[in-house]
Amino acid sequence: MQDKLNYFRKAMLSLKISEFEVPPMQDLLIIGKKAPIGPEAVKRMAQAISPEQFTIVKLEHAKIEAVLIRNSLLQMLDERLLMQIILEEADRLISDNMVLRSELKISVSVQREVELQ
User: Fold this and answer.
1) DSSP letters of 41-106?
2) Tell me: the pLDDT tens digits for 58-72?
3) pTM confidence score
4) Could you tell me the superkingdom of the organism this chain comes from (predicted)?
5) Does 83 map to a domain?
6) Domain range for residue 51?
7) Is residue 23 part of a domain?
């Protein structure tokens, strides 16, 4: 008597699709002190791809030389506060020869109370 074996092959796919954005560097680039591309080259690249959309913020940090950040984000939050948060999080991930790219979404919540007449 021959045993019948059931044999299955399965593949599980997970696909995340989003709209392509220019430039492909998203909202900010965190540039290490010994990264293969420096802040000025990154600034020129951003300017060529998306003129007047980004600003380079040079920093005094052990591992990070500069952050290229989307101007609209700097209009929404104070630059010092934004850089403090970015540095706190990036410091755990970056080495001085890396360039990290990041997506940063800011959501503002407002609640007001008004008197009714």
Assistant:
1) HHHHHHHHHSTTSEEEEE---SSEEEEEEEHHHHHHS-HHHHHHHHHHHHTTT--TT-EEEE----
2) 999 999 999 999 999
3) 0.73
4) Bacteria
5) yes
6) 28-102
7) no
